[in-house]
Specification:
five-stranded mixed β-sheet; alpha/beta; 167 residues
Length: 167
């Protein structure tokens, strides 16, 4: 299974493609972040995110895209911008013929660290261990995107076991 995780953000949109091998090893295919310039118009930012995510999907051929579900922000303006970025990420996946799975921050942290209230640094350290990376993915948004992809892989494996047991 090959999953692309996307961590949507207003300044950086992190991405990471993780593959699970037949012997259940996790391999990082690519990771990084799309940096958005602060002076750019919002429409130009969204176009840049769409174009770059679509290119990454075409190059790395994930089977599914996983993103973080909407969370409640205190700042309404920030929440609206995040919603726009999420919409563009979902559109890029859809145009690429991919399904989108959404996970809450609590679910992602639980799946990767085992504790839903883990700090960002704990998530980053566990991502490094699970993927056997020698250096932490930077910026933190790239690490978060890998965590989202790992969450989907773990969740899909659990759901598959339940389906087999239910038969």
């Amino acid at each position: 299974m090959r999953v692309m995780g996307i961590d949507c953000g207003g300044e950086y949109t992190g991405f990471g493609v993780v593959e699970e091998t037949r012997d259940r090893k996790l391999i990082c295919q690519t990771t990084g972040a799309i940096k958005l310039k602060s002076g750019m118009a919002m429409a130009a930012k969204l176009q840049k995110i769409f174009t770059e995510l679509t290119a990454i999907m075409a190059e790395h051929q994930p089977e599914i895209v996983a993103i973080e579900d909407v969370f409640y922000a205190l700042n309404v303006k920030t929440a609206l911008k995040l919603g726009q970025v999420r919409g563009v990420a979902m559109l890029a996946a859809s145009v690429s013929g991919l399904e989108v799975a959404e996970y809450s921050p609590l679910s992602i942290k639980s799946a990767v660290v085992g504790y839903g209230r883990a700090e960002k640094q704990q998530v980053q350290q566990m991502v490094m261990r699970l993927l056997k990376l020698t250096v932490p993915p930077e910026p933190m948004d790239a690490s978060d995107a890998l965590a989202i992809a790992i969450c989907h892989i773990h969740t899909a494996a659990t759901q598959s076991k339940y389906q087999v047991a239910a038969r």
